[in-house]
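coproporphyrinogen oxidase
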Amino acid sequence: MFRTLARATLRSVKPAPYIEHAIVRNVSNVAGKPLRNFKTNFLLGTALFSFAAGAGYYASQSKVKVSCEAQTEASQYMKKVEEMEKNKRYEVLLPSDAKPTSMSQRMDHYVKKLQYEIVSTLAAIDGKDFVISQYQRPGGGEGAVCVLQGGNVFEKAGVNVSVMSNKLPKAAVKQMREKPMELHGDGPYPFFVASISLVLHPHNPMVPTVHLNYRYFEIQDEDGKPQAWWFGGGSDLTPSYLFEEDAVHFHSTLKQACQNHDPEFYPEFKKWCDRYFYLPHRSEARGIGGIFFDDLDTHHPEQIFQFIQECGDAFLPSYVPIVLKRKDHSFTEQEKEWQQIRRGRYVEFNLVHDRGTKFGLRGPGPKIENILMSLPLTARWEYCHSPEVGSEEEKLLEVINQPRDWVPLN
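Tokens:
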């Protein structure tokens, strides 16, 4: 996993050689063991890589050397990860050792592994543990909800995995996707869904909120064979304050993941994201976008599954460097209030327009707390609020009122 994260990030974030060497030397000294041993330890490797990516990203933008303060920060992450390794509390999220064969089993296996990796890394950064709630679905399936509230970095962070199998009537099945599909018989139809979803709401208004969701659907025959299948998902960034270099980094990482599979994916899915995460009643975008796609069945399922895995593996490299760079940024009470107002827009979209929320609420045996996990702890609605002309707040509104191409589409 360490190598996967490194490859995904270093395509778009390339620290100067002297920075990479300094990180290796200092981290090795702190650990008291050779760097090569880190590759056998996911949590250790991920936390160290998060620091390295953040330090390299900072240096690439501001042209400064890694400071003693940054080296101390690496040491602090090391201690946090070592403590986590002792209790191994997140290993309960990992899938069984049984080798998956069908696509449904493989997606089930992958989203659980990705949840473990993301939760472990975020906990190492924040310093506070996630609360884990695992459950079995009466009609078939299972899930794991991981929530961190009132942390040091994240005000609220939720990383959920849901695996569901049940039966749905024909009308409900047709609402599951935009593109029409041919189904045999009148139903109800057995279906399968495996998905991972996360929303992270940071304390600091300079750190953007981020969303991710990747999912796989099957409509099955009575014997369990798929008669229709598709993938969906994406990841998008919702800042309260705009740092253009952060937007470029986020989009560059996603673009590279897309281009490794199809050169048309990024331009198509970036535009799709701009269209989807839009509040028509406000005439504004939710944030600065990312990628989004649904009903994806145009390639061989193995090709799409490889694409889904690369996008999922690109999440930490796309977001962690931004968190590490911005999380200790100073802010004012007024800037915190603006963050609350922008969160209000986030709530409006999720409750009024989001298809995932609607599907969850209308599906069999809805778990309301899990579905609404994406909502922030706090938000704000001010009557006719308008930012000052020329302010940083107005700068953000200009971008979300007119979506921008942060990197070349082709």
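The beta strands are 131-136, 141-149, 154-168, 189-202, 209-220, 226-238, 278-279, 284-285, 289-296.
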